[in-house]
């Protein structure tokens, strides 16, 4: 029962993981509401939270070495609630909406990396892969709740989409009462004394595979961000619907992530060390189907596959990072992973704009190509096999180093 309570508390944080994308359902309506603002600036409502997350994860990695991770999680939930609910008051000024989105992202900068840290320290490695998969499934379930609920709430007035962030109150209470207070990490000296860990020294001694896998996460984030930030534009361009329809498509699509997350152990058995390859191929098919779709049914199939892709890749990446990290390194390695993930999500629209790639169909074509390239890279360099083969040896070496930090 204690393990179940802990699991429920930790996984409740995952409901918020995709919450920054809630407002993307209303992009078409927001573009109409702010005719003098550029489309790229409006799209930043869905991407600027990644900037807040990006800036925060650097600090959280250091804080998590010295402060209980439960405390950091509670701070994050509060900030997500503040950033998500203030737009109900300040929704007539796009700049203020962007500030609120930044606050929301700062909150996610606490909750997202801390969630993977908590999973890594509260569950054994045998349980960890399963819980990581479940966390991705709950990410998708959270997306269903947030995207579908937000889409319905904003059907008539787009600003009402933000009412969905009232859910942060329930999540705060679950974290407060169900997650045990964790201990701050320490190392043991040769004299048998304990001392606080140096975050900088731990970063210097991380396995090279932590960096490799984290950079794969960065590219996954960059590629995947193309999907939600352009979906409503494509749906509107194809005359398939508006804000409510996009919300429904996103909600149905995340069912794929929900199924894949709870079934990750079976995907691991099926694809073994090629699961990243399978994930990127699936994402490429997502972009292709929606790019050529002429009806809503094909768009929904593509959206379902996007959930499968997201679950396969984004659950595997933190698991791989945990495999090649010693327990004392978890806070730093997970923060690095999330930092690079946020970096990709933040700058994707800017990069596409710099390359003169237009929003909509052209962006999805770019997603097809980029997904194929990443699948080939993961296959040719046998990323999964290298990580799992070297994981245990690297972890043993890291433990020895960490003991002397």
Automatic annotation (TrEMBL):
Note the Gene3D superfamilies from the entry.
MFS general substrate transporter like domains (1.20.1250.20)
Question: Per UniProt, what is the membrane topology?
Answer: Multi-pass membrane protein
Where's the Major facilitator superfamily (MFS) profile domain?
A: 5-390
Transmembrane parts of this sequence: 44-64, 71-90, 96-124, 136-155, 161-179, 209-227, 247-268, 275-293, 299-324, 336-357, 363-383
The record ties this protein, via Pfam families, to: MFS_1
Instruction: List, alphabetically, the PROSITE patterns matched.
Output: MFS
At the top level of its lineage, which domain of life is listed? Bacteria
Keyword flag Amino-acid biosynthesis: no
What SUPFAM superfamilies is this protein classified in?
MFS general substrate transporter
Q: Does the keyword Ribonucleoprotein apply?
A: no
From the Swiss-Prot or TrEMBL record, state where the protein is found: Cell membrane
Name the predominant localization.
Answer: membrane
Alphabetically ordered keywords of this record: Cell membrane, Membrane, Transmembrane, Transmembrane helix, Transport
The record ties this protein, via PANTHER family, to: RESISTANCE PROTEIN MDTM, PUTATIVE-RELATED-RELATED
Protein name, as recorded: MFS transporter
């Amino acid at each position: 029962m204690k393990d179940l309570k802990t699991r429920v508390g930790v996984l409740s944080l995952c409901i918020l993981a995709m919450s920054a994308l809630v407002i993307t359902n209303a992009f078409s309506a927001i573009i109409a509401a702010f005719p003098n603002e550029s489309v790229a600036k409006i799209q930043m409502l869905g991407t600027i939270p990644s900037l807040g997350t990006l800036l925060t994860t650097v600090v959280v990695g250091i804080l998590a070495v010295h402060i209980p991770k439960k405390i950091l999680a509670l701070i994050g939930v509060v900030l997500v609630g503040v950033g998500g609910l203030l737009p109900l008051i300040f929704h007539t000024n796009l700049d203020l909406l962007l500030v609120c989105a930044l606050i929301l992202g700062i909150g996610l900068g606490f909750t997202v990396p801390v969630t993977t840290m908590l999973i890594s320290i509260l569950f054994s490695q045998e349980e960890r892969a399963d819980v990581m998969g479940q966390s991705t499934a709950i990410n998708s379930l959270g997306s269903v709740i947030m995207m579908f609920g937000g889409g319905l709430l904003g059907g008539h007035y787009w600003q009402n989409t933000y009412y969905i962030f009232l859910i942060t109150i329930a999540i705060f209470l679950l974290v407060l009462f169900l997650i045990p207070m964790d201990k701050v990490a320490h190392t043991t000296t040769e004299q048998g004394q304990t001392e606080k860990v140096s975050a900088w020294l731990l970063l210097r001694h991380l396995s090279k595979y932590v960096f490799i896998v984290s950079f794969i996460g960065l590219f996954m984030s960059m590629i995947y961000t193309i999907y939600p930030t352009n979906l409503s534009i494509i749906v509107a361009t194809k005359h398939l619907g508006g804000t409510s329809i996009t919300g429904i498509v996103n909600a149905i699509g995340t069912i794929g992530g929900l199924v894949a997350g709870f079934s990750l152990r079976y995907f691991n058995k099926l694809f073994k060390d090629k699961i990243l390859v399978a994930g990127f191929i699936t994402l490429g098919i997502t972009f292709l189907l929606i790019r050529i779709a002429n009806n809503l049914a094909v768009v929904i199939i593509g959206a379902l596959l996007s959930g499968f892709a997201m679950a396969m890749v984004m659950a595997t990446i933190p698991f791989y990072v945990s495999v090649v990290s010693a327990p004392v390194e978890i806070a730093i390695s997970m923060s690095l992973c999330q930092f690079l993930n946020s970096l990709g999500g933040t700058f994707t629209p800017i990069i596409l704009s710099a390359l003169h790639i237009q929003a909509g169909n052209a962006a999805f074509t770019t997603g097809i190509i980029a997904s194929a390239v990443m699948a080939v890279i993961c296959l040719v360099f046998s990323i999964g096999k290298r990580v799992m083969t070297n994981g245990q040896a690297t972890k043993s070496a890291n433990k020895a180093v960490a003991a002397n930090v």
